[in-house]
Design goal:
With 433 residues, the protein is mostly helical. The chain contains 19 helices and four strands. It is flat, with a radius of gyration of 33 Å.
Length: 433
């Protein structure tokens, strides 16, 4: 008589001298096979995790944490909140739109006296100065003379400097009273809040950030296109030449990587300037007159030329890695079947190189968007990119919150483009090698 096998996969059929019996699978030592396999899988996963733990820690410390700090810095600015407790308390008790009364000015004088003791008037003034230029000296002067001020404080402060009664100043101080603010993002988009709290565009002569974002995007796309046009035939030549000759040509492609970026950029400065090699050669050949020298420095032209040369290898290598794997017999077969050279290229060869084009374009574009040294040296005011302004706010104006907001917007834009690329082309089709 046949005995039906158990449905539970963890129950085995055990043969004994008396017949067939149901029972769990066990190891030689009597432990459950299921438990033993679970422990083995856990140990394997633990070993794999420990192997990647140093790399994970490196990525977290050097990449994720700085980005998190950048995002925090773009919305967190506690200098005013931490050093002006009396005025912050007054703002908390009175809703926006309340006219500052004598108690508000008394709180302000108390805080100015506190700033004199803590020596942080410059810090607070700088925070207000980010949104209302000219305010830093107002706070440092007020802190120096606050001890001599007597009631009524409103008249005393206005006599010291009429700017203390400016509604725009009180609006900025109210906004700065909160350690968290979105005003830096507004400034990064050429916007501000008026005295009533409404978001409005800044004055026309101060609208620079949107223009720089648009210029950065346009020049990055142009440089990506130019590198693709120049790199495609080079990569094709590398992929079709015999190995001995392609290796020599590859050395020439990689040679810029062995040269300092600063050296390459300054070399272009020598070539492109009005009295440089290119203009001298054109004058010597009679193509242009000595008084008609072409201005290729400190403008967009210099930025595009220098960055295209510097980023060209980043387009060549992904294209070469893909073209090298394309079987040349496909194109020959298309030609034998009656296709013209253009048709064979357009319908057979080019579609197979799309993964390399996508990888190279994405790599070059991301590098071009964040480039700093080359635009700073050869771009001038006309070729400045948003990265140069971010560096300016970090190194010179010390407005790190605005720099963080600009960087966060730039990062967001790149991520959006990356998402669009994934939707339109597919990130799975990207090949770097």
């Amino acid at each position: 008589m046949t005995k039906e096998l158990p449905a539970d996969p963890h129950v085995a059929v055990v043969a004994t001298a008396g017949g067939v019996e149901d029972g769990p699978l066990t190891m030689a030592d009597g432990t459950s096979l299921k438990s033993a396999m679970a422990r083995a899988q856990f140990r394997a996963r633990l070993r794999a995790f420990l192997l990647v733990l140093p790399l994970l820690a490196f990525v977290v410390i050097t990449f994720i944490m700085p980005i998190g700090e950048l995002l925090k810095r773009s919305v967190y600015s506690p200098n005013f909140h931490d050093n002006m407790p009396n005025l912050v308390a007054w703002f908390a008790k009175h809703p926006p739109g309340t006219e500052p009364d004598e108690s508000a000015y008394a709180a302000l004088v108390a805080d100015l006296r506190l700033l004199k003791k803590t020596k942080k008037a410059g810090l607070v003034g700088t925070r207000v100065n980010y949104e209302l230029p000219g305010s830093r000296s107002l706070f440092t002067k007020g802190a120096r003379k606050a001890k001599k001020l007597e009631p009524p404080y409103r008249e005393a402060l206005l006599k010291l400097d009429p700017k203390w009664g400016d509604p725009a100043l009180w609006q900025v101080m109210r906004a700065a009273a909160s350690p968290y603010t979105m005003n830096f993002y507004l400034a990064a988009l050429d916007l501000k809040r008026d005295p009533s709290g409404k978001i409005v565009p800044v004055e026309e002569n101060r609208r620079i950030y949107k223009m720089l974002f648009a210029r950065t995007l346009a020049l990055s796309l142009l440089i990506t296109f130019l590198t693709l046009i120049l790199a495609y035939p080079i990569a094709h030549l590398l992929a079709t030449l015999p190995l001995s000759k392609s290796n020599l040509l590859m050395i020439l492609v990689l040679l810029p990587f062995w040269t300092s970026l600063l050296v390459r950029t300054t070399s272009w400065m020598v070539l492109l300037q009005s009295q440089g090699v290119i203009n001298d050669a054109l004058v010597a050949l009679g193509i242009i007159g000595d008084d008609g020298r072409i201005q290729m420095m400190y403008n967009k032209t210099g930025t595009v030329i220098a960055m295209t040369h510097i980023l060209l290898p980043f387009m060549v290598l992904p294209l070469y890695s893909v073209m090298r794997t394309i079987n040349p017999s496909y194109v020959r077969a298309a030609r034998n079947l009656g296709a013209t050279s253009w048709t064979a290229f357009r319908r057979i060869y080019f579609p197979q190189t799309v993964p390399g084009i996508g990888a190279g374009a994405l790599l070059v574009f991301i590098l071009a968007v964040g480039y700093y040294i080359t635009p700073a040296l050869v771009g001038g005011s006309d070729g400045t990119l948003i990265s140069n302004l971010i560096a300016f706010h970090i190194q010179k104006s010390l407005n790190w919150s605005l720099a963080a907001a600009l960087a966060a917007l730039l990062l967001t834009g790149i991520l959006i483009l990356y998402w669009l690329y994934d939707k339109l082309v597919g990130i799975d089709n990207l090949k770097l090698g």
